[in-house]
Amino acid sequence: HHDAVTHARQHLTQVVAHRGASEDAPEHTLAAYRKAIEDGADALECDVRLTADGHLVCVHDRRVNRTSNGRGAVSAMELSDLAALDFGAWKTRGSAAGRMEEPDWEHRPEDREATSVLTLERLLELVADAGRRVELAIETKHPTRWAGQVEERLLLLLKRFGLDAPASPEESPVRVMSFSARSLHRVRAAAPTLPTVYLMQFVSPRLRDGRLPTGVRIAGPSIRIVRSHPGYIERLKQNGHQVHVWTVNDPRDVDLCLGLGVDAIITNRPRAVLDQLGR
Ligand code: G3P
Ligand code: CA
Questions:
Q1: Is the ipTM beyond the 0.90 threshold?
Q2: Which residues contact 23 (CB under 8 A, 6 or more apart)?
Q3: 244 ligand 1 Cβ < 6 A
Q4: How many other C-beta atoms lie within 10 A of the C-beta of residue 179?
Q5: I need a labelling partner for 163 at 20 to 30 A (CA). Which of 46, 102, 123, 265 fits?
Q6: Given pLDDT bands bounded at 50, 70 and 90, which one contains residue 205?
Q7: Residue from 14, 16, 18 whose mutation best tests the ligand 1 pocket (most atoms within 8 A of CB)
Q8: Domain 2-62+118-276 in CATH: superfamily?
Q9: Percent of the chain scored above 90 by pLDDT?
């Protein structure tokens, strides 16, 4: 019986490419997302921030210093400032943060777009042109400077792609994730059928009983929570929540997640996880 369950899970568990195929290619670039789609990822994860002139761009940190050849806060820069930067070279230089073990991705300076700043709009186009269903897990970062505006822009953009009003959350190819319950609340107020994911770094006492903030369907615990509180994951499942775990790169953690029946594994190495799942 256990084998049958495990086998079923291997096919039910979604593999989500965290920041794209970010182990192989520079995170949040078109290069990384193209690779993730090639690798067979079921979904792509990205973080979004607003530029000073109101564009949503896919950048994790508050500043561009770590992942580009520029300096400064995304929220203080215009899209044209960001477009002048290279978001790929740091990965080939082999910095401590992003050392490449297998050079699966080759930095080609002539392919400017592959390592330019990635707008969410361009990522939505990439997904639309993928030729198969590729889901998108969009994380709103929540700089106080732009309270409310990130969600507003996000929903406008999703609307343009016909993605803001799925018939039901189950059918939606897009979901919105955040560590901020307020951010998710704003999304649901404007787009009630869009699924939301509440991200958790630690289990707060308020959440121990396996309930999530009102209206949230999906829990997004860190792998550290899964390792230290597997019973909490079971409680979430019993309460009818889906569980999407980040960031799962170790094969033993993949096994742990499968054993607990998690619904999505968010990983920097989608190809390796799919291999482990026999897919
Ligand atoms: O997928 C959620 C995960 O990405 C949250 O943490 O810091 O990588 O955005 P972070
Ligand atoms: Ca993220």
A1: yes
A2: 100, 249, 268, 269
A3: no
A4: 15
A5: 265
A6: confident
A7: 18
A8: Phosphatidylinositol (PI) phosphodiesterase (3.20.20.190)
A9: 81
